[in-house]
Amino acid sequence: MRGVRNLLYAAYERRLAARLPQARLPRHVGVMLDGNRRWARARGADTRSGHQAGADNISPLLGWCEEVGVEVVTLWLLSTDNLNRSPAELTPLLEIIETTVEGLAEARRWRLNPVGALDLLPARTAERLKEAADATADVDGIWVNIAVGYGGRREIADAVRSMLLEHASRGISIEELAEILDVEHIAEHLYTKGQPDPDLVIRTSGEQRLGGFLLWQSTHSEFYFCEAYWPDFRRVDFLRALRAYAERERRYGA
Q1: Residue among 57, 82, 158, 232 flagged as catalytic
Q2: 88-135 pLDDT, tens per residue?
Q3: Does the pLDDT at position 197 exceed 90?
């Protein structure tokens, strides 16, 4: 019975993929990898097992993105709020993130870009993220933003701080800056500066809120909320998200 079901799903996936309109697919996809702990709890497993299962699903997702021509992927792995979790959970989670990012770098398929308040992370974690970015700087593949220690409000605050320091170094006063300040000045200092804003943001686990993910960049994004916990997120779920995106009429705030 399972074999028949697998064949039907495979046929369904092929049909979904074949019918996706290439001209209406997203360039930048943001993914909130949510539900690892609940996935583990539902199976009577420990939290680390849930985080590891979630980490194991990242490489397949990037492969699916390659298949359809996505150019940028932003993965939210750890928020600034998550840094307040107990050491018993946070320490192994950071170890999993470090090992996962190192594995992605070794694959030499994707260009990795850590985004977040790296100064809030343990020195070892921040260093390994930077090493992964350096090791893939010359890779001609999907740009993958690794959001660790990331919070949307913190990003905007960091962008404003960076902008003020830059203008101060040029001898521009606060009064002069206030006269010329516009949204582009801030956008030029975001973690994702130089990249297109996300067209599609996917959140797994059934939660229907942003929680601070890409607050500035997602102004005109389309959102897709999937009931599956992140470790259970399959290629067919990704294709359904792309189909839903392609069927929408984007209004860009109008």
Answers
A1: 82
A2: 999 999 999 999 999 999 999 999 999 999 999 999 999 999 999 999
A3: yes
Confidence at 252, pLDDT banded by 50, 70, 90: low
CA dist., res. 254 & res. 249, Å (int): 11
Q: Which of the residues 34, 197, 199, 237 is marked catalytic? A: 34
The domains found in the chain, sorted by start residue, are: 23-150+197-247 (3.40.1180.10)
Q: One-letter amino acid identity for 93?
A: L
In whole angstroms, give the CA distance from residue 88 to residue 56: 21
Q: Has 82 been annotated as catalytic?
A: yes
Question: The tokens 């950071």 sit on which residue?
Answer: 94
How far lies 83's CA from each of 6, 99, 107, 149, 153, in Å? Answer: 39, 18, 28, 7, 15
pTM of the model: 0.93
Per-residue pLDDT tens over the stretch 149-165: 999 999 999 999 999 99
